[in-house]
Protein 1
Amino acid sequence: MAAAPKIELRSLADIVALLEPTSSLKVNLEHNVHLVRMEPGRIEIRPTPKAPTTLAGDLSQKLFALTGARWSISISRETGHPTLAEQRRDAKAAKFESVTQEPLVRAVLDRFPGAEIKEVRRLADEDVAAPTPEDDA
């Protein structure tokens, strides 16, 4: 009988990825937790004031259920990293700022005052139509 694969958790994002999309623990980990330190079996967090007081215990129990190993969750006063939600927001803002600085986009925005970028997407290779022989004519 083969042993179950060991779950390796290196970040708060790794933990969140294992949780049910609608679980309150997932929502709290994304929006109300600043990760201070994480190593195997030990996590140090700084919860926001909106986090439930049971968060550390809930997380410890869930990690035990997921990994079969005991996890120590401690509360810290250190600042820690931005929450996962803050990290996503900052990454999105940086992407928008980067796109805004592209010469073609800048020209369009300058030409049409009040225009704004609503979404930034990366086109996959298969989304871009391959040139057809008629395109060369």
Note: The chain is about 40% helix and 10% strand.
Protein 2
Amino acid sequence: MNKLRFNPMVTGLGPPCSCLLALCLSMSAPSQAPSQNPPAESPMVLDRVVAVVNNQAILASDVDEEMRLSVLDPGRAGLGKLTRTRALDQLIARALIQQQIRREDEHAASPSQAEVDARLAEIRKQLPACVHGDCGSDAGWRAFLAAHGLTAERVESYLRYRVEILRFIEQRFRQGIRISPEEIETYYRKTLLPQYAQGEAIPSLDAVAPRIEEILLQQQVNALFSDWLRNLRKQGEIEVLDPSLESPETETVGRESIK
């Protein structure tokens, strides 16, 4: 049975005691009510908890919002619509990461407004959904948000904690990784060169070495991060309360889904 969370912000009924009272009244409407009395209001639908991650609740409305926000992820191009099961997996991973960030550095500075604005500008240029729209203009961006049930404030909040998570990943996993010249040359000869057709101009190793080094760095960061997140899942207390959102296998959300 799904657990109900009586949240005054969700129901709009004020304090939790008022919410419980309203629920009880809606379940016991009198059969002999005087005709002059106004009709009883319809019972309000309460939000529900669909999962708990180390005592942190994830609501059905959180899953709905995650699906709406997925339009902001350029990496989803060609992957189809995000499923509710996958959306919940992403929320579980994000909750675990944010909890760990607080444990490791409770005084971590929030991303600056400039960082968030830069990420927003990047998103507005990269979004496949904006190709045929005018997301570059304020009017076009507002129209895009309205079409997807989003607000500028919610998008900014969403991007803020994504920047925070990415910054944490960079600081925690990238430091100490060193890519040797031999690794760069091996990637150049075995991975890059075979991608060129005969007769095509091939860039020199020196010209592409910095880009190759960045690719190899990101590969190692992603591998370290995936292992770390997998361990967080194993060590954490995760309970999915909605059977329809359970996945056959616990999916590990990689860094690419957080960008």
Note: Residues 205-235 form the longest helix (31 residues).
Protein 3
Amino acid sequence: MSTSTHTAAEPHAAQDLPRIPHWIDGAPVAPESTDFGEVIDPSRGVVTAQVIFADATVVDLAVRSARQALGGWRDLSLSRRIPILQRFRQLLVEHTGELAALIASQHGKMVDDAAGEIQRGLEVVELACAAPTLLKGEYSDQVANGVDTYSLRQPVGVCVGITPFNFPAMVPLWMFPIALACGNTFVLKPSERDPGASLLLAQLASEAGLPPGVLNVVQGDKTAVAALLDHPGVSAVSFVGSTPVARYIYERSAATGKRVQALGGAKNHLVVLPDADIQQAADAAVSAAFGSAGQRCMAVSIAVAVGGIGDQLAAAIADRVAKLRVGPASDPTSQMGPVITADARDRVEQYVGRGESAGAELVADGRGLSIPGHERGNFVGPTVVDRVRPGMDVYDEEVFGPLLGIVRAETLDDALHLIGDNPYGNGAAIFTRSGGASRRFVRRLGRFAVRRHARVRTRELPLLHPQQGRHLPLAR
């Protein structure tokens, strides 16, 4: 891999850049403001747009619009709500290519990968379209002499979604269609790094017939987030992102009595036993670790080699990594694109250096990668670090980039304890030909998850991990 000097994104004259607005009360809103963020094409390192940041006044405008629309939308019959969501689903299908290209240009993932993200979002839209069967109440006859009981499911109110950069369409689609189907209204605050997808989603929802104010989008940074969390008109908040921000979201929202779901960091392990098909395990490890440049909540960041197979597994992974084609999202032959920002690239490279200094062995070094014609891009090649141990930053912390660590374990029990002691949890997989080992893996990790949750509560970290559910309790 060739090396290049890292440079900042290429600037453009501000007057030449399009400005990405908010979406409030069924229309784009672009107030006069001097507070903007830069939207950068990660493949080229070029500023392509400015996004207008919301202040408390704009946030209040969006929440008030959602509050005003709540009564009419809540009282609208399901037989009239659902056809709007069905039309929205059809528009998503028709505009998948446009939306995928937009995501690729602002996020840097491959267009096919972006289309897959949209498909996963569509699955939840389809679930929302089945809301009439999911929103039924309950009735119990004669629970006591002359006493019957019944329950009704009613909307919570104005819901807020604060969504991450890594899935700019999928995560919003996991939130607002369910909320809308339940009769709530919604304010979406997407990542300021790739905000275009959310605006297009709002436009398509409006085209589908969604009344003004039912779905609003406010662009911005922590100022907009704080205004949403503190606003008395907001009833519920859902967040996906880093653990420190999840903790902040949870505590600040709960302090004002809001329902809150805050999904934080992840550390996913892939365990390979000596009886496994090593080639199959290596294929899975490379695919899961380096898809979307490792910027996925479910990306495998640690492979655990059990017994004496560590060298064999490392060699098989290295062979596959050497053949991965890294390039811009615009190149259909690319298999892995850039990370989201230059800061993200630098952070990943620093983790590699710290791991090497702590005694880990580099199997594949993706630092300093330069792509001809895209020298300003935020590229890090697929990186594999062997003989990683707990206590190393590269193991203990969420890297969120194209870096796979290999840990050696003597036995399956050692591997299970390793995973159970990690504070992040989220997902784990096992490769083995033994049904008994697979069953033990599942059952033991389930008990570890309960213990981990107890430890989290003891340390007063009020976080929910992604595996504990994705959706707000949007009907009560």
Note: The chain has two domains: 14-263, 268-433.
